[in-house]
Amino acid sequence: MKSLLVCALLAATLLASVIEARGCPSYESAVDICHNFTRIEKKDSRCRFWSCVVQFCDAEYVQATQHKYCRVPATAPRLKLPTSPLPRGVVARNTAKTVGTPATSSPCGGGQGSTDASTIRHWLLDTAMNVYYDRANEHYTEGNQRWSGITGHVCPPNAPEYSDCSSTVTWIYWTLFGNGNDFMNNESWSAGYTGTLDQHGTQVPINTTDLAIGDLCFYYTPMHHVAIYVGGGKVVSHGMDPVGYYPYDYAPVDFCRRYI
Fold this sequence. Notes:
The chain is of the alpha+beta class. The protein folds into 2 domains: about 1-70, no CATH class; about 105-260, endopeptidase domain like (from Nostoc punctiforme) (endopeptidase fold (from Nostoc punctiforme), Alpha-Beta Complex), CATH 3.90.1720.10. It has 8 helices and 10 strands. The chain has helices spanning about 1-20, 25-35, 45-55, 60-70, 115-135, 150, 165-175, 195, and strands at about 105, 110-115, 140, 160-165, 200-205, 215-220, 225-230, 235, 245, 255-260. It has a 6-stranded antiparallel beta sheet with strand order 5-10-6-7-8-9. A two-stranded antiparallel ribbon has the order 1-2. The protein has a two-stranded parallel ribbon with strand order 3-4. α6 links the parallel β3 (about 140) and β4 (about 160-165). α2 (about 25-35) packs across α3 (about 45-55), α3 packs antiparallel against α4 and α5 packs across α7 (about 165-175). Residues about 1-25 and about 75-90 have low confidence and may be disordered.
């Protein structure tokens, strides 16, 4: 057991040096790494995923999330070293520029007031991944029930029982900003669709170098679907059942937008 732990720590150290050499020792890059080097499919993957992230980004909020899902501080996961080139999604990324980050006003205990962008993106990532992990209990609908996550005051780690693509991404943001101004749809967090989401935020380049956690990607021409970017070249999407975890370009991307 001791030798396995030593090997795991050595692998993590070597991988960190590879990433640092490529100029991306950041929270978003840590997430990129761990999307690519941990299995995501099951709820028990959360402990392993956040144990991976904390190896490269030991911020207090990351440690708190690791402890939440692991119950106790976890040992470092065993990481398989990448071959060259690094997997898709692990890139030397450009610094994600904010577009005027609003103050958090969370109905779910996520914070109040001025909050740095990395902490916000961390919350959005954790919440979006919980939507994916809880997919067995979620149902796609385009009816009024799609807003049940907000009207029913559903908070993470739970996810709405009913939703569609636009209400899912709106709910994810509502969990952190829902007691404040609706800067996503301008509908007081009670309505909206892809067409209203399209009218807010700022357009960003469609590539893993520039996309940041929390950006929304819109699909098809004419546009009629949206998913949330979660790092590692991946999005969480509820365009059908079950909720999907896909490469960001799993369907034709029309454009992507940033809201924080």
